[in-house]
TrEMBL record:
Sequence positions that bind ATP: 25-32
Similarity comment text for this entry: Belongs to the Mrp/NBP35 ATP-binding proteins family.
Record-level Gene Ontology MF annotations: 4 iron, 4 sulfur cluster binding; ATP binding; ATP hydrolysis activity; ATP-dependent FeS chaperone activity; metal ion binding
Protein name: Iron-sulfur cluster carrier protein
Complex formation: Homodimer.
Originating species: Roseovarius tolerans
GO biological process: iron-sulfur cluster assembly
């Protein structure tokens, strides 16, 4: 995927676009319903919104937005997929590429290929927000999106039961480990709202989402009650926010959408994604400015000379790490024992003159590096780079 493709995937150009993943630790929590209604709420606010149905095996967004399953996407003159549109929202989904009763029988590499196509090879045009409706769990799809695209943040959807909240916590921790900011927790199915009296009965317990948000130090975006109209509206392909905008649940969706528009400030680091070919200088990321109170694990500038790699961090700290030190500290399976973490790379086989030949971004949390000895599977997390020994460089 080229840098240009990735920029198109974000809407084509610079600005305040947000790339937000809607995630859950387990299935059945109503995540896709939340995504569809938040998207409609944002569109009604005047935002340009896109939705990627990233649940390759169980796509449901098109049905919830009234997009016919047999509506095959067209191609633009430059061979990009033209997304479907409904309720002012642009949509891309596996459901638009297959028949209703045809399962997607795909291995991991093909799933990754489709995901990258859905984000980077679609004619999105100018977007303010691109929502990614993720499948449940913490597997290939979640990791692929976190590595390939600079996510503004993730929203974790759960129900109030303890079992759901415990699994939601795992999904939240996974996002944190790959440096995806948590924009907040949504508690779905948070009690039954009586249509006659408006009273809410808490069928599945109460307050668990808010409690876990407080415990983990992340925002609580809101609680969405159960209403029969939610199911009816979804089955009819008319999201509740549009079909019954005055309902308690619709109002909750709108408040969550409003909160998300105000959250997820710019990452403040390098212009991600990038792919820097050091030999000819192409793809080198533009520098970002350090800031007062900046993060210790956000890179704002990279440079390379005959000594090694210069890294400046958002908090103003600067490092110069030797090229050979970088190669010796690779933690891939070819260089480290996967069980013990002990190095298996023989230092005598690493030339003193070795240099990086290519450096690329992996989401918001790591750099990939290829070296002049042909090794190209190294992943260097920002934390690991910050912890490496380096030459003394004056902080800025």
């Amino acid at each position: 995927m080229t840098q240009q493709d990735a920029q198109v995937g974000q809407g084509g150009g610079q600005g305040e676009r947000k790339l937000i993943a809607i995630s859950s630790g387990k299935g059945g929590v109503g995540k896709s319903t939340v995504t569809a209604n938040i998207a409609v709420a944002m569109a009604r606010m005047g935002l340009r919104v896109g939705v990627v149905d990233a649940d390759i095996y169980g796509p449901s967004i098109p049905g919830m937005l009234g997009i016919a399953g047999n509506q095959k996407p067209a191609m633009s003159p430059d061979q990009k997929v033209i997304p479907a549109e409904a309720f002012g929202i642009k949509v891309m989904s596996m459901a638009m590429l297959s028949d209703d009763d045809s399962p997607a029988i795909l291995r991991g590499p093909m799933v990754t290929k489709y995901l990258q196509m859905f984000v980077a090879q679609v004619e999105w045009g100018e977007l303010d927000v691109l929502l990614l409706d993720l499948p449940p769990g913490t597997g290939d799809i979640q990791l692929t999106l976190a590595q390939a695209f600079p996510l503004t943040g993730a929203v974790v959807v759960s129900t109030p039961q303890d079992v759901s909240l415990k699994i939601a916590r795992r999904g939240l921790r996974m996002m944190q480990q790959v440096n995806v900011p948590i924009l907040g927790i949504v508690e779905n199915m948070s009690g039954f709202a009586c249509a006659s009296c408006g009273e809410v009965t808490h069928i599945f317990s109460k307050g668990g989402g808010e409690a876990i948000a407080s415990e983990l130090g992340v925002p609580f975006l809101g609680a969405i009650p159960i209403e029969p109209e939610i199911v009816d509206a979804g089955d009819a392909g008319i999201p509740l926010v549009s079909a019954h905008p005055d309902s308690l649940a619709a109002q909750a969706y709108v408040r969550i959408a409003e909160a998300l528009v105000g959250r997820g400030a710019a990452h403040g680091g390098l212009a991600l994604p990038f792919d820097w070919q050091l030999s000819d200088g192409t793809g080198k990321p533009a520098d970002a400015a350090p800031m007062s109170g900046g993060a210790a694990d956000v890179v704002t500038a990279l440079d390379h000379d005959e000594i090694g790699l210069m890294i400046r961090w958002q908090d103003g700290h600067a490092q110069l790490i030797g090229s050979r030190d970088l190669r010796l500290n690779c933690r891939c399976a070819a260089c480290r024992d996967e069980m013990s973490g002990a190095p298996i790379l023989d230092p005598s086989r690493v030339p003193q003159t070795i240099t990086p030949t290519r450096i690329w971004s992996l989401g918001n949390y790591a750099l990939g590096m290829a070296f002049s000895d042909g090794h190209s599977s190294g992943i260097y997390t920002f934390k690991a780079l910050r912890d490496m020994q380096s030459a003394e460089v004056e902080d800025v």
